[in-house]
Prior knowledge:
Blueprint: E1 9-13, H1 18-29, E2 33-38, H2 41-53, E3 57-62, H3 69-83, E4 88-91, H4 106-133, E5 137-142, H5 157-177, E6 182-189, H6 198-202, H7 206-211, H8 224-235, E7 246-249
Parallel strand pairs: 1-2, 1-4, 2-3, 4-5, 5-6, 6-7
Helix pairs in contact: 1-8, 3-4, 4-5
Amino acid sequence: MTGRLEGRIALITGVGGGIGAIAARRFAAEGARVVGCDLDEDAAAATEELVRSEGGEITVTGGVDLGDADAAREWVDAAVATYGGIDVLYNNASTQRFAPIEDLSVADWDFTMRNELDLVFYTVKAAWPHLKAHGGGSIVNVGSIAATRGVEFMAQNAHSTAKGGVVALTLQLVVEGGPHGIRANVISPGLIETPNTAPMLADPPERMRRVVLDRIPLGRHGRPDDVVNAAIFLASDESAWISGAHLVVDGGGSVLG
């Protein structure tokens, strides 16, 4: 690693597994002091132990429900109390429920809004005064290609709406944060292999293969590192004059009609 994030204080949500766990490892390997959280206490502890075993500096809090505004604020405030500020806020955490519009319950809609959109607002709101006091910083939000197009192989009504909200929120953060040196950008992944998607990718339904996998110009589905590479760039000084970018990480698939 090259120390691209040397000395940065990086708050990363949802580090218990998948992309978040890779992000915690990669950010720490690049020299960041990582403060992570996850709802799953055991998964949070496992990531913390792994990163420390690799020589990284990390503190992870388990049992944090970021869909609760008070819990989000307490986690952010504890990080600042320990490390003295925030340089990077990487809003990776996300949980959703899928169903066709006629089957999607109000409870599932509310669950998805809470755990994909509300939690981003709550962590940003909690971090904002600390970012201002610290002289600025980088907010990296995670959207989705579903935020800007229909998705053929799975009904994603609530997910698409929530991620569209994340993209829109990010643009407003750019305007309000600029005078304070706060940058905000959003990464929208395509189909990424994670513990949740791996079984489906191992034996993909015919429709998903036909309308998604076989039409990715770069010829493969995504990997967690593909997303984390973008996040490291947006967290580093290499993107110091980039704010408001919507970086699509999908192998080129979304350009096809």
